[in-house]
């Protein structure tokens, strides 16, 4: 892999940890399996370690990079791919990913996501689920655990429930700290998110479901009876065949959808 540009230090405020392990990079590329007729989007390409492997394999690659000092490095390094390589100097949290979509070709999104913005960025990307074929991310292992968590798991909560509403979530493999420069203090992991063509458990109002889940997990140690009191009574929860004395992490996605749909129906009456 190419070295860091002279004078370029990983920036804490951008959450930069540059991937440098070639074995891990090759494993990530095998997991993504890019094809030459596909449109890929890379978030936070950094010094281009993954970019370098993706470019020869795909039809088009758009990258979203916030650190302006890295833009000339990327332009110089990949000048020979100018016909299919586009750089967007932008904050991925605010970027309109739909602007890259060209029907019927869906986007394939990849990225070594900064730890400090990974959760809000995933929520942002889920709003574009209909335009995305799949997503492969390097994340803090703890975040991958939350994405894949099942009811009853200590990591189960809002992130996993909403990700699993939109996507099939598949943790792939763990990446140790020494694969990066600088080395983070925690393990990372690769996860694959595949948006459903048709969600298996559609909700009447997705905004309402988000409110219900966020409110339910507002205070994890409290019961549904207490946390959801502003939205629904304990009697109504009981009528849905859900115990209002349960803590939120005991409920399935379908349980939250039933609560959300009940509230939506009651409000429209």
CATH class of the largest domain: Alpha Beta
The low-confidence parts are: 1-7, 10-15
**Number of self-contained structural domains:** 2
What is the number of helical segments per DSSP (H or I, 4+ residues)?
10
Order of helices and strands: EHEHEHEEHEHHEEEHHHH
Q: Assess the beta-strand content as a share of residues.
A: 15-25%
* Architecture (CATH level 2) name of the largest domain: 3-Layer(aba) Sandwich
Rg to the nearest angstrom? 20 Å
Notes on the structure:
By secondary structure, this protein is of the alpha/beta class. It has two domains: 12-195, 3-Layer(aba) Sandwich (Rossmann fold); 206-268, rRNA adenine dimethylase, C-terminal domain (Helicase, Ruva Protein, domain 3). Helix content is 32%, strand content 19%. It has ten helices and nine strands. The chain has a seven-stranded mixed sheet with strand order 4-3-2-5-6-9-7. A two-stranded antiparallel ribbon has the order 1-8. Strand 2 (39-43), helix 2 (51-54) and strand 3 form a beta-alpha-beta unit. The longest helix is centred in the C-terminal third of the chain and has 16 residues, at 253-268. The radius of gyration is 20 Å and the shape is elongated. 35% of the residues are buried. Mean pLDDT is 92; it is low at 1-7 and 10-15.
